[in-house]
Structures are given as structure tokens and as C-alpha cells.
Amino acid sequence: MSERTAHPRRQKAFRLGMSAEGKAALFLNAKGYREIARRWKCRAGEIDLVMKRGALIVFVEVKARARIDDAAESVLLRQQRRIVAAAGAWLAAHPEHAGYDMRFDAVLIAPRSYPRHIESAFEAES
Q1: Which of 47, 53, 91, 105 has the maximal Cβ count within 10 Å?
Q2: What is the total count of domains within the chain?
Q3: H or E segment and range at residue 13
Q4: Residue 115 lies in a domain
């Protein structure tokens, strides 16, 4: 379903997500990260942002809510598993990054709040 044919509430959520991802990417760029991919999708799931800094690849989940605390609570275990699986697929598709360290971060976005970057927001399960 395209944005044009989606329900107005879904259209608004889509636009909010796109805006939050853009803000998160700019915020991380200012911290020295370089964007490699945005909204990367595969069967396993979607990665909002893939960022690089030095020999580190960071898979970033971006959450936008009315309050920062609500955003922090919205990264659920089921979602973490999908992101980890998608990261594995991303690495398989980009073997040039296989020797890099990797980390799973979150960037929380809320109106009238400075973005919050949580490094190592969750770990890949063994």
C-alpha cells in the first residue's frame, strides 16, 4: 500500500517516521557518524539507519513519540530480534564491512526535546 492510498493516520505516522529518521541522521552526523543506509529492508525486518564511524558499524532504531520516555519504552524485545536478524542480512549483503565492530543503538525523538542517543541500546543474542 502506497502512502497515497494509505489511511490518513498511517500517512501521518509514515511522515513522522521519515522526519524522525532525518533528524536522527543529522544528529548522528554531528557526532561524527556517516550514514551508510536508511530504511534498509529485507525479509527479516527493517533497519532505520546504518551508520559508520571509524571501524564501527552502528544499526540504529529511531523512535519518535510525544515524550522521550515513551520512545525509550517502545523498543520491544520482538522488534530487537527483527533488527538483529536484519543486521545479519545487511552484513551478508555488504561483506566489505564484515571485519567491523558492530553495535545496536537507539535515537529517541520527541517534540521540543533534544534527541537522545542511546549507545548499545540492546545486544545481539548469542
Answers
A1: 47
A2: 1
A3: helix 8-30
A4: yes
**What is the SS3 assignment for 92?**
helix
pLDDT digit string (tens) for 30-49? 999 999 999 999 999 999 99
2 inside domain: no
pLDDT for position 11: 58
CATH number of residue 26's parent domain: 3.40.1350.10
Q: Please, which contacts does 76-82 make with residues 24 or more away whose CB atoms are closer than 8 Å?
A: 79/45, 80/104, 80/122, 81/125, 82/44, 82/45, 82/46
Cα–chain-centroid distance for residue 21? 7
Place of cell 555488504: 94
Helices (runs of H) and strands (runs of E) counted in the chain: 3, 5
The answer to whether residue 59 is domain-embedded is yes
The domain in which residue 104 lies consists of: 8-122
- Name the more confident of 18 and 88: 88
